[in-house]
Amino acid sequence: MNIQPPNFQANSLENYWMPFTANRDFKSDPRLVVKSEGVYCWDHKGGQIIDGSSGLFCVAAGHGRREIADAVHAALMTNDYTAPFGLGHPLAFSLAQKITEITPDPLNHIFFGNSGSEAIDTALKICMAYHRAKGEGQRTRFVSRERAYHGVNIGGVSLSGMVKNRETFSGVMPNVVCMRHTWDAENRFVRGQPENGAELAEDLQRFVETYGGSTIAACFVEPVAGSTGVLVPPIGYLERLREICDANGIVLVFDEVICGFGRLGTPFAAQAFGVTPDLMTMAKALTNGCQPMGAVAVSDEIHDTLMNASPDAAIEFFHGYTYSGHPAACAAGLATQQIYQDENLFQRAADLSGYFLDTIFDLEDLPVVTGIRGYGMLAGLDVALKDAPGKRGSQIQKKLFWNGLHIKFTGDAAIIAPPLVVEKAQIDDMCKILRDTLSEEAL
Ligand SMILES: Cc1ncc(COP(=O)(O)O)c(C=O)c1O
Known about the structure:
Layout: H1 23-28, E1 33-37, E2 40-43, E3 48-51, H2 54-57, H3 66-78, H4 90-100, E4 107-113, H5 116-133, E5 141-145, H6 154-159, H7 163-166, E6 176-179, H8 202-211, E7 216-221, H9 237-248, E8 251-255, H10 269-273, E9 279-282, E10 294-299, H11 300-309, H12 327-342, H13 345-361, E11 369-375, E12 378-383, H14 391-402, E13 405-406, E14 408-410, E15 413-416, H15 424-439
The structure holds pyridoxal-5'-phosphate (PLP).
Pyridoxal-5'-phosphate binds at residues 115-117, 120, 149-151, 222, 226-227, 255, 257-258, 283, 294.
């Protein structure tokens, strides 16, 4: 592979304020990706890197998919932009219809935004509008969970259970309460769903008993808590949340931004765990990461309630983005869904999961590894704390990169999620780099 080093000087890096990045540290030793294809990327020095986290859990079909690029090009050349308020274009309707072929019934309505964070804000507002339309505007409390990540807009930060993501920001939504997280020391090396921990869902019941079920609007959970290091729901946990929500008129929202589109071997986590929420947020692999896009799948009941609550010919929901259902994003989404279907990638993920998890769990013997969890093609691996939380994680992340592997870390947890097109030999290569790099860590 002939990689041309980019023409940059150290001070030319100053103008870009990088997101969720230690800017000063990065700019002193930049790690630039200049090309990507399949499960690989190449850095600016010409090194080949396995993309062990599908970018940021986006690139399920692998990098450099020409079908998607061609579809985006064609969309832009045909109809580059249509105002989405009060006008439509065919691709948005086609993509919504395509997505509902794989969402569980009755989640048959799709609202588009541009990211996971916007999907979360949209879902919060749908919950508020729904209860108000039903005459239950007193439902103002939202339930989330410790260690939750729901993006970075004020709505998502309000629901956040990760201290660093919220302690700086004072203007968040009031009336959010967090259930306990489902991490348990006993389950440190449990593969799949832990057998113990379903009783943690009773936290929601306690909120019902403390605040009154009729004051709670919605309960938001990531079915598998992803960014915090892959916490797989205990057996029976999601089912119990569903029961409590049903008994109390609470909307159950699954944030499927990471889990969606085959990551767990099914279209969505809802199908993997056999629990259907009322709303589902999605983004990332919706377009294989090729265009920014997020969406909310909405149940018939919520959608129809909002439609029927408004006078004829009136706007039913005062919400939307300039780029909701952008033609380029819709084209990318349609081409992506076609690839998933043609290559049977969700089933491929299910079939490959056993091998993937076996290989990751083989790292259990390394002294620095303090926990491994996983489901489908998603695994979390904890490394022992050194000096301060996150310090070792970020050092290992950098070493891995120069050793040829990109892995997303949150603090001291690695989140491993290769593209679903990965081959077994590439999983072996990935785990060899992990083993070699982690073996160098002194305790
Ligand atoms: C579960 C979950 N929700 C929401 C988001 C936010 O998505 P975005 O970064 O596209 O705004 C993420 C991002 O990682 C996520 O993992």
